[in-house]
Amino acid sequence: TVSESGGDDTSHRFVLYDDIDFAVSAADVTAREFFAAREAEDLACADCGTDKTGWASVSFGTYLCASCANAHRSLGIRWSLVRRLADGWNWRQTELQVLRVGGNAALGSQLQNFSDVQKLSHAEKYTSRFAEYYRRRLDALCAKTPPPQPPPLESAATFSSGEFLSGVEALALAEDAAQRFGVSVTAVRTKLPIRAVASTGSLDG
């Protein structure tokens, strides 16, 4: 419903979803056009091959179905930053750049040389030393710096330290932490007596 008075009141009317005017920025349009022009291999999920790809792993520059996106999200932002395509809404150019230099075919091409990595479980594969190498590679390509050397075959399938963060991952983690902090501060404020908040003006008093 939409308020007739433009505020939070009890007088509302129903409107159709299609009649709502959503503001679309130039960046949103760019992202939408980018997703619409994807290569054929990027229309299928990089992990399972299904043809419904409404998500992407920004960390690996690949497109995913909802089920595989959930598997990536369960690993956490530090291992795989997952975003919904959502018609291009709120995508940064830096995130799109990772997908430009990456793509499903690029990851598949790199994996061909690492048979041991291909045999790993989903969680093991995307937290392996190969996975860290590939994230470093995409980060370097985006920054137009020399990419790292691939890991030795004998250690590519082993667990990564998890210390590396790409530029887009670091920004996402910082924003997530800031949001969590804001929510926690709000939660604390709601539990404080009104007089305590009013007298101190902050949570420090």
UniProtKB/TrEMBL annotation:
Domain of life assignment: Eukaryota
Domain Arf-GAP per the UniProt entry, residue ranges: 28-138
Keyword Protein transport: no
GO molecular function, one term: GTPase activator activity
Keywords: GTPase activation, Metal-binding, Zinc, Zinc-finger
Pfam family for this entry, one: ArfGap
Transmembrane annotation, as ranges: none
Xref: InterPro entries: ARFGAP/RecO (IPR037278), ArfGAP_dom (IPR001164), ArfGAP_dom_sf (IPR038508)
GO CC terms, sorted: Golgi membrane
Any Gene Ontology biological process: regulation of ARF protein signal transduction
SMART domains to which the protein is assigned, alphabetical: ArfGap
PANTHER family documented for this protein: ADP-RIBOSYLATION FACTOR GTPASE-ACTIVATING PROTEIN 1
Protein name: Arf-GAP domain-containing protein
Native species: Noctiluca scintillans (Sea sparkle)
